[in-house]
Amino acid sequence: MKRLTFQEIIFELERFWSQEDCVIQQPYDVEVGAGTMHPETFFRVLGPTPYRVAYVQPSRRPADGRYGINPNRLEKHSQFQVILKPPPVDVQDVYLKSLEKLGIKLREHDIKFEEDNWEAPTLGAWGMGWQVMLDGLEITQFTYFQQSGGIDLNPASVELTYGLERIAAFLMNVDSVFEIEWGAGKTYAEVRQRAEREFSLYNFELADIPTLYRIFESYEGEARRLLEHSGDTPAEGKRTNIPLLQVYDFCLKCSHLFNVLDARGAVSVTERVSLMSRVRDLTCQVARLYSEEISV
Amino acid sequence: MNSGTGEFLLEVGCEEIPARFVTDLSRELTMKLVEFLEKNRIALGDSGIRAFHTPRRLVNVIPQLAKRQSALEESVTGPPKSVAFDSQGRATQAALSFAHKTGVEVEELSVITTSKGDYVVAKKVQNGISTEKILESGLATMILSVPLPKAMYWSTPDGPRFLRPIRWLCCVFDGKPIRFQIGEARSSNNTYGHRILQPRRIAVHTFSEYEDHLYKARVLLDPEKRRERIQNGVEQLVSNTDAKILQDSGLLSTHMNLSEYPTPLMGEFDPNFLKLPAEILEAVMRDHQKYFCVLRRNAGEGEKVLLPKFVAVIDNESDPHGYVRRSHERVLRARFADAEFFWESDLKVKLEDRGAMLEKVVFQEKLGSYAEKSRRIGVLAEWIVQEGGLAVDREALIRSAHLCKCDLTSQMVKEFPELQGIVGGLYAKEQGEPLEVSRAIYEHYQPENLESAVPDCLTGAVISIADRIDTIVGSFTLGHRPTGSRDPFGLRRLAYGVIKVILEDLISIDLKKLVLRSADLHRQTREFSEDEVLKALLEFFRDHAQYVFLQSALCGGGEKIERDEAAAVLATEHWDLCGLAARARALHETRKRENFDSLAVSFKRIKNILRKSGVEFEGVGLEIQPELFEHDEERELSNQIQELKRGLLDLQGMKDYSKTLESIASMRPTVDRFFDKVLVNAEDPSVRKNRFNLLLSLYREFIQIADFSELQPATGTHL
Questions:
Q1: Which domains, from first to last, does chain A contain?
Q2: CATH 2.60.120, domain B352-549, yes or no
Q3: CB B179, CB B187: distance < 8 Å
Q4: How distant is the alpha carbon of residue A185 from its chain centre?
Q5: Is the preceding omega at residue A86 within 30 degrees of 0, hence cis?
């Protein structure tokens, strides 16, 4: 089998999961820390309607940036996210088949499902599952979602999060993510290294702390204002006139700003708890209103 | 083989059960199954029950399970015989309706004689139904009733819950499948092979067939066989080389529970990484990658030299192309490169300068920063050294307290939190701090539990006590106290550590005073109800000290002391734990020779009398007026108390608790005679008061050593 490039890995996964009846979505256009924060996960796991979706999500972790120097750490990495609601009974086997599509001959490797329970505190979301280890490398987070936005999920969803850079480095047998062949003859370094350097520079050195706090509070205030907005009488079949997706976008903005402030070393442990719980309060309210609305 | 029994096989097939829980889960399931069968009167048979587990299956086999429930004989008591039968012995209407109600023929009624007279009894025999039916209707509920450390659901919240999803059920009794269902999983006589190597469906009818087929399908069912396979494989990898494995039974158990077909494999890393401290390399390999470390076989005595190798355990039979090894090597290289980066960049900052950063690191929201904690540790540590008269260099002590938490700001500790303290110690050494200081920092989180070693250096031991006391007392002032099995702050473990260090290093300090000193420091920043906190803390330490005292090795060695002996010495209100341990040991020894039973009874009596009398147990001004004595027994007791008092003073000075106890035991006849002859509650208030005082002075001597009322009567020879 021909060795896949970074973009071909994405194509293969998209093709595989579209054959498993997934909607193939696009990355969300607001900064997020993980594929879970994409509205296609956050909202779709709520309520009873079956749904299957897959998409790539560039995920920003400001504190993990290393100016593009460290071979394994990135400010922005790429997750391939799959939501299966409800989970099929053979979900593990289906997942393993997707690895074979990438050219991994499972019989020649060491695959383990090691306990790892996952939590996203700002989303009021958590689940139980594993990190999937391939020859000692963590390649996927495999989670049975139990709660999102503080709400018990009915039914549960399975969330699969593939770490694309790790998988690509593994398949290409390279030590640095920057040596990954992206496609069209370009390396990962050529496509992404400058961004790594510049965002690290901003996040660690240049970000203005008071400004970021101010923006955080503006977005938070706008989210609160919308949540308190009752407006005109709701349209038929709706409980509120609140644009919940918009409120949620503001939550994502806050969450990202919090991460930048954290990377900048501007958040003490106490503040951290309080800022995170402020964002969580908002996302949980959004989830509650959304659930009520779809159960009308 | 008895034709009334059949072989029973149950396999609960799961998605990967967490390695740390699977052994306990298998045991719990086995217990529930036995309980279920007993409750349903199904005999297990002489061969009992066996249990096996892998990450994906929980298995029980019962070779000779009864095919039927045993019969149940039930008797129902009816009306009196005189009512049920007339004088001619003919059944009356009462008998007829009783027989009808219980479903027994009138002729089958019998009569029993009770203390209230003769009554009619209906004996009913309920024949057992088939085991198969009971299994079919009850197994699902039984499996789901197993207690779980962490439950999850995989379909809907009202659906089944287990540790991980249940995906198949293989259940065979006497060669035939037993039918039941959990969620979407329907039972059958099918099992499945190894997930990757042999993922096929296999039909089975007996356990031997099951075990055999699974073996061929690359599943080692018996955890012990997996453990052996790993051990032997590891030994083979190092045989005839200069290497040996750093034994690690915890890691071995983890791997036993992570793979159905575990195979060890050796890899190598760049020897340049060996310039990093071994502690860090080991933490990366063991904790993050679950690798066994490899040591040089012929290192010097007590010397541990890492080789640039590691052993991974893979869930596969082999690695013919070396793919798996190379990938593990690559992952480890990246991990080591990170650690190397942290090591080098952390060292650029002096630990001293990290002290200032600690002002911003919160220890606990209401208990302030780690900088504040370090200052409190310093104060307590100095107090301990003074109070205990310890030979510790003051300057090194202060410096250690000041620096001990500084590594919390290092990148290394953020990445490897389990190395806190150790990393600080290594950095201190590297940056030229005095040896005593670097060792104290390195060791101050020891002992991790009751089994692990206490700090080697006394400075480290003192810091360890001070740090833990500060956390425990601080948490109690906030109302964070362990309840039942809940102990989110790990305070129990901390308390055991404090007690263990005090006893092993013979640090003779008054724990109550230390707790008060610590509470004082916390009160400078916050209000709390001191009496209540202190009461709770002392109770907490008393409970934990009692547990530790019962571990003979920690209480002076030798025979295990008894629970009541520990309780008796801990009830004395003395808080020098070393002295209390010595008292307990002496009490245990003396008790073999002297009979304390009647003394315990008398002591209890004295306590009760005094409690009812309303006299102050503590306080001063105990005046005994000999002129108020009316009996010789009073005088005799009074004289003996004076004698005892003088004797005890000397003996306790020498800490000779055995002799002290013998003196106390010798008081027994005098005390007995006193109670025989003297009425404490005399009419005359002054005589009465005098007698109370007499008893109180006796009580005060005894309670120096133990609260004898805690002693339970001996059941053995010396009565």
A1: 6-202 (3.30.930.10), 207-294 (1.20.58.180)
A2: no
A3: yes
A4: 28
A5: yes
* Inter-chain residue contact A87 with B154, CB threshold 8 Å: yes
**Region class of B112: left (phi > 0), else alpha (psi between -120 and 50), else beta:** beta
User: What angle in degrees, to the nearest 10, is found between the helix axes of B511-523 and B458-477?
Assistant: 60
- Alpha-carbon span B277 to B263, nearest angstrom: 29
Q: B244: part of which helix (H) or strand (E)? A: strand B243-245
Residue type, B594: E
Tell me which residues of chain A, numbers 151 to 170, contact chain B at a CB-CB cutoff of 8 Å. Answer: 152-156, 170
Mutation to test the A interface, candidates B56, B226, B323, B341, most A Cβ within 10 Å: B323
Candidates B150, B183, B148, B147; CA nearest to B168 is B183
Q: How far is B362 from chain A (nearest CA, A)?
A: 6
B589-634 pLDDT, tens digit each: 888 877 777 778 888 888 888 888 777 666 655 778 888 888 888 8
In this structure, what token pair is assigned to residue A88?
A: 């099929």
- Is residue A216 exposed (0-12), middle (13-18) or buried (19+ Cβ within 10 Å)? buried
- As given in the structure block, the two tokens for residue B51 are 């249990």
pLDDT digits (tens, 9 = 90+) for B314-355: 999 999 999 999 999 999 998 998 899 899 989 999 999 998
**Residue B483: DSSP 8-state:** B
Query: What number of CA atoms fall less than 13 Å from residue A87's CA on the CB side?
Result: 30
How many Å is the Cα radius of gyration of chain A? 20
Residue B693's pLDDT is what?
85
Q: Closest by alpha carbon to B563, among B584, B582, B590?
A: B584
Enumerate residues 6+ apart whose C-beta is below 8 A from B79: B94, B95, B98, B119, B120
Instruction: Indicate the fold that domain B5-69+130-216 takes in CATH.
Output: Alpha-Beta Plaits (3.30.70)
- Using alpha carbons, select from B35, B62, B69, B71 the residue that is nearest to residue B173: B62
Residue-wise pLDDT tens digits, B573-588: 889 999 899 888 888 8
* C-beta atoms of B327 and A128 within 8 A: no
Helix H or strand E segment including B108 = none
* Lookup result for tokens 């149940």: B72
Contacting residues for B671 by C-beta, under 8 A, at least 6 apart: B599, B602, B637, B698
Two structure tokens written together for B345: 């960049």
Q: Decide: helix, strand or coil at residue A51.
A: strand
Alpha helices in B217-248 (DSSP H): 223-238
Q: Which chain A residues are Cβ-neighbours of B20 within 8 angstroms? A: 115
Nearest to B274 by CA among B304, B240, B312: B304
Of the candidates B150, B330, B360, the beta carbon closest to that of A268 is on B360
Q: Of B105-119, B273-287, B550-564, where does mean pLDDT reach its minimum?
A: B550-564
pLDDT at position A269 is: 62
Amino acid at B313: V
Separation of alpha carbons B480 and B486, rounded Å: 10
Measured in whole angstroms, the distance separating CA B645 from the mean position of its chain's CA atoms is 42
User: How many whole angstroms separate alpha carbon B278 and alpha carbon B287?
Assistant: 13
Collect contacts of A184-191 with beta carbons under 8 A, ≥24 apart: A184/A7, A188/A6, A189/A68
Calpha distance B576→A47 (Å, rounded): 61
Collect all residues of chain B within an 8 Å Cβ-Cβ radius of residue A176.
none
Share of chain B above pLDDT 70, in %: 97
